[in-house]
Amino acid sequence: MTVQKTPSTALEAIGSLEALQTIIDVVASPIFVKDRQHRWVLLNDSMCKFVGLPREKLLGKSDFDFVPAEQAEIFWTIDDRVFKTGAENENEEEHTDLNGNVRTIVTRKRLVRINEEVPLLVAVITDITEFREAEAHSRYLALHDGLSGLANRTLLNDRVDKELAGTSRCALLYIDLDGFKDVNDLYGHQAGDELIREFASRMTALVRSGDTVARIGGDEFAVLVSGIEDPRVLPDLCERILQAARQPFEVAGMQAFVGASIGVALASDPDCRYTDLLRKADAALYKAKEDGRGCYRIFSDEMDERRRRRNMIECDLREALAKGLGLEIHYQPLYANSDEALIGVEALVRWNHPALGMLGPGQFVPIAEETGLIAPLGEWVLAQACRTLSRWPDISLAVNVSPVQLRNPSLAPHFLKIIHENGFDPRRLQLEITENTLFNADGVVACSLRDLRAAGVRIALDDFGTGYSSLVHLRRLEVDKVKIDRSFVQYLGHSADSGAIVHAVANIGKTLGLVVTAEGVETEEQRQFLASTGCTELQGFLFSRPLPEEAMAELLDRAFGIRQVA
User: Dihedral sign, CA of 306, 312, 315, 321?
Assistant: First the structure.
């Protein structure tokens, strides 16, 4: 069998320079050939386009004629190594064109010899600029918040780790925007997004270039302050952040207002760990919120202990609600002003904690509100009190309702179901809500209160005089009762202002046809003054402290002369 050989004329044709040029011009990737003096002796069309000059202006030239000297030095060094060793080289490089645009390229270089004498360097370029830019963009997205452009939690964590590994001191600030939810609810989420971006911009302008501002949640931010020489700079920074948050935000063509709470943790201990720093900043932030918001608090060991206690209470309260153990209700009697007859009780929850002893509501109800436990706790109180009062004489039952509970649109049907299941007359029930809750009442709250009143439940406004209620709100939500806050009753006889406020509230009640209750009555002098103003009902230690169920049953037996059947 005879093998057909390539015609010598074809080989000769391919071997000509013009033919070789024609062949490599077909290749899409830039190709160039250099001689031993590092001069370009052959380039394809793609290479000319890559450089941005015609072939005749490139032949015989070197990299030093077209790229910055520092890049040309790198190219020269790599080319020289290929010429000397004959080793093939592949390298990722940066190439700056004549317009100053920087491209990222991978260059593959190989040594070839013509007639085994003339050394030439042949290179093929792959432009990976778009790939690297996409890669960098993906990396950026992985480390930055998409809305604000700030560092995200991942990048913050990384930078905190690096700071703690160094020798200089750093501090971590945790920042929560106060009132941000109201902006979202009032103006919409797009307005909320605008506010977040603007606050991020304000924060960035307040810190140094080496510090890190991060968004770590919906309205949660953090600042890593690096290289602290004097910790006294931290209060000044916090004050400037608080001031920046207080300034009005232009959103949706309107002005919106928020505030901020800040927790600060200083990594002054060389052995400080990342988790410790975060925990301390979080504990300080919690203290700032607890102290009324709109302020900053710097971590102290006492906060750590308070936070541990809080976490323990949360965990134990979950267990107490799940098992129905430790919680109990005390009942504080309510008396008519006219004849001091016992006409009702207020249900007040207590918790016999296994380690801390008997806890009042102020020690665990705020934690229940923060953690979502207030709903099951409130339902337990309502069910237990209704069940107990159904066995007692025909007196009223007052139960406190948390603002968190009131925001639940299914509150009314849920409460009415509990009342019915425990055989209690809804007309005997009074739900007490705070004045600030009434002032901030939205459609959901107003609808729930109207549905409850329609079923016979009465609504009492607790702590009246401490908030922002107006006659408009009292009329709109059809409140049945107002309770004068104990802070005004306490100073009767000692403060003219307190007396004037009590008179004013009593007159409002008469004008609107509302029942007026004074709570916190502790002295006979207070009782006489309140009686003279026309208060309808009185409650306080002068008459009785809150009593456990058994003691309350005994008091009812004495008051009504009827032993109740358990």
Answer: negative
Query: CA distances (Å), 301 to each of 90, 270, 333, in order?
Result: 58, 17, 41
**Which element (helix H / strand E) includes 333?**
strand 327-336
Using DSSP's 3-state secondary structure scheme, residue 462 falls into strand
Q: In the Cβ-directed half-sphere of 349, how many Cα atoms lie within 13 Å? A: 29
Q: What is the pLDDT of residues 373-431, one digit of tens each?
A: 999 999 999 999 999 999 998 899 999 999 889 888 899 999 999 999 999 999 999 99
Three-class SS state of 297: strand
What are the tens digits of pLDDT across the range 203-242?
999 999 899 999 999 899 999 999 888 888 999 999 999 9
The overall average pLDDT reported for the chain is 87
In this structure, what DSSP letter does residue 151 have?
A: B
CA distances from 426 to 35, 94, 343 (A): 100, 79, 16
Q: Count Cα neighbours of 354 within 13 Å in the Cβ-side half-sphere.
A: 8
Contact 387, 355 (CB under 8 A): no
**HSE, side-chain direction, 13 A CA sphere, residue 481:** 26
- Gyration radius of the chain over CA positions: 39
Strand partners, 212: 224
Instruction: Determine the Cα angle at 71 with ends 68 and 74, to 5°.
Output: 150
Distance CA 345, CA 442 (A): 29
pLDDT confidence of residue 473: 58
The values of phi and psi at residue 345, to 5°, are -140, 155
Residue closest to 518 by CA, chosen among 497, 538, 501, 492: 538
Q: What is the pLDDT of residue 167?
A: 77
Q: Which residue has the tokens 């360097």?
A: 121
Burial-class residue 153 by CB neighbours within 10 Å (0-12, 13-18, 19+).
Answer: middle
Pair of tokens at residue 234: 């931290």
Cβ–Cβ contacts within 10 Å for residue 483, how many?
27
pLDDT above 70: percentage of residues in the chain: 92
Structure-block tokens of residue 285 = 């932030």
Q: Distance from CA of residue 514 to its chain's centroid?
A: 41
- Please give the pLDDT value at position 63: 92
Which amino acid is it at 301?
D
The pTM is what? Answer: 0.63
Cβ atoms of residues 457 and 431 within 8 Å: yes
Crossing angle of helices 233-246/189-206, nearest 10°? 150
Residue 405 carries which DSSP code?
H
CB 221 within 8 A of CB 150: yes
Burial 310-335 (b: 16+ CB within 10 A, else e): beebeebbeebbeeeebbebbbbbbb
Sign of CA pseudo-dihedral 137, 141, 144, 146: positive
Residue 436: predicted pLDDT: 66
Residue 10 has pLDDT above 50, yes or no: no
